[in-house]
Each structure stands twice: as C-alpha cells, then as structure tokens.
Amino acid sequence: MIPSEIAPTDITLVLGGCRSGKSRHALKRAEAYPGNRHLFIATCVPEDAEMKSRVARHQAERGAMWTALEVPVRLDRAIRDESPRADVILVDCLTLWMSNLFAETMDTDKIHTSVTNLTDALAAARCPVILVSNEVGTGIVPDTALARQYRDAVGWMNQAVAAAADRVILTVAGIPVTIKNDPDGAVR
Hints:
- The protein has a single domain, classed as Rossmann fold, CATH 3.40.50.300.
- By secondary structure, the protein is of the alpha/beta class.
- Strands 3-2-4-5-1-6-7 form a seven-stranded mixed beta sheet, with helices on both faces.
- Strand 2, helix 2 (49-61) and strand 3 form a beta-alpha-beta unit.
- It contains six helices and seven strands; from the N terminus they run βαβαβαβααβαββ.
- The two termini are 18 Å apart.
C-alpha cells in the first residue's frame, strides 16, 4: 500500500541483486497507485530465446492496467514526454538501460551526460516514477576492463539516481528494506 504522505511526483529507486524480488516489489508498489494510466517503460532489447521468454513472463505478470513502452536508450525523453499523461511510471531496468548506452557509445562523458539527463527528467517528472536497478557492486571484481567499466558506470548511475530519489528500497531475498525515505537522505 502507498503511504498517504507520498507526494504526487514521488521518485522511488528499487535496487537488488539478481532474482532478489526487486521487479516484483516495484510492480506491486506501482499497482498500488490510483488511476488507470500506469506506464511500464521497458529498457530491455531481447536478443535471445531466454531473454524473450523472460520478457514474456514479465509481461504476463502485468495486468490490463498497464501500457508498455519500449525505450532502450532515450529514457530521459520518455519520462519527460509521458509523465504529464501517466498516473505512475515504472522503469525496468536501469542496468539494461546502461547496457544499451554502452552499445551506443563507450564515451564515459556521454554516458555521464545520459545519467544526468535522466536525473534531470526525474526532477521534472509530473507523476510518480519507480525505477528498478541491479546492485552490482557486491559481487566479484570483473576480470575484464570492459566489465569493470560497466560495473563502475552502473554503480555511479545508481548513486546518482539514489541521490535524486525520494525513496530507495533494497530488496534482499524477496524482502524490501527501505534505506532512504525522504529527500534529505535520512536513513530510516
């Protein structure tokens, strides 16, 4: 259920490891918002049978209240354009979005600009936005320079989005743990 004190433009980041329950928690949280204009922004570009199956499973979990929009790269533009018409936006997931950015450019400055554009769009959003991302910094150190660059970019992105968010929830073994619950960064 959504607490009554949540502002109409509330931003929530849901983080977690692989299979931690983050997408399920974000979906339930988003479905608790009133209205019939729930927008799911999918960043995934399914390129193999397993990923296509995963996408189909996620689509089946969403009810008729959802409209889906595939946005592999221009996430900031989609949030700016769609938030005036939506009751809530759910973005799943930022980690795949970062993969798509890497496929488009390896330029760190351009990637940082994309993340800054995203946080600016979140600040200007006209409806609540819930974003899902993987916590990648608690695993092993990757053995290739590219994988380390990606891990570092995701970590920096998660920090930037968490700073812009009103609420940050970490999911562990299917259990949501709120680690930030207001704009000033207080831990509760």
